[in-house]
TrEMBL record:
PANTHER family: ADENINE NUCLEOTIDE ALPHA HYDROLASES-LIKE SUPERFAMILY PROTEIN. InterPro entries: Rossmann-like_a/b/a_fold, Universal_stress_UspA, UspA. Pfam families: Usp. This is Universal stress protein. It comes from Streptomyces mangrovisoli. It comes from the Bacteria. Belongs to the universal stress protein A family. Residues 1-145, 160-297 form the UspA domain. Gene3D superfamilies: HUPs.
Amino acid sequence: MTRPITAGIDGSDESRAALAWAAREAVRRDLPLRVVHVWRHERHEAFGADGPDGRERPGGREDQARWVREGVAAAVREITERHPALEVATEVIEGDPVDLLVPAARDAEMLALGSRGHGAVVGFLLGSVGQQVIAGAERPVVLVRADDAPSAEAAGREVVVGQQGEPDDSAAALRFAFEAAAARRATLRVVRAWSLPPVFAYSPGSLKLLDDAGGLEPFERKALAAAVAPWRERFPDVPVVEHIELGSAGQVLLELAGHAQLMVVGRRARRTAVGARIGSAAHGVLHHAACPVAVVPHE
């Protein structure tokens, strides 16, 4: 089954940037583009309101729905003018954004969203809607800021991906990153951040592994090489830089974000009493990286 690149839009500058990014990605990968606008009926003087008998007043729900559809059509026209050969489908849905965007992601190769929306995805990064969409999505979600431009891609900047743990722990993120780099003919920088563990964290087994590796940094370097090796074989044409650095994962990735055209982070969502959490590294990168950020669920 061919999965489309899906863009969730809401009329904001951020979502228009996400739509433009998704269109370029669809062209690069020779995939169709699906544009989804999730909206809610707002009782606002600009649109009127339902009367006390529940009947539609002029400028009420139907006018608002027509305004939304016209906005989507205008956005799609702009995309098809830039990419006339691109296959584009649109869907305008009224309802809850989380309930509808999560299934939209499930059927897509990836879901692109503006990093700060107004309306359907209000408070995307800081509020509950964004975290729920990211945590609930079974496919990668790409966050795009309003000032994103294709110039970063044309400048040949790197794709950057974070790797941690055992090879299987980052397999999904590495696959996505290698595919993205291959589609762009870009260099891929694979980053493994490490820190000095407390003395009491060492066990006899871990000490032996460190001794065999020759120390902490060589151990981390070998771990990164082992994680990357199968993907190098699958994507032999992708130039790869293996990057080891002492520090927190979020800090190290953010230092590299300024030179990246795309940042890829994995996530293992956790449910807590205060809602979904997506991990400190992903959370920090989402808040502060200027480049588009792809959040890839662990397999």
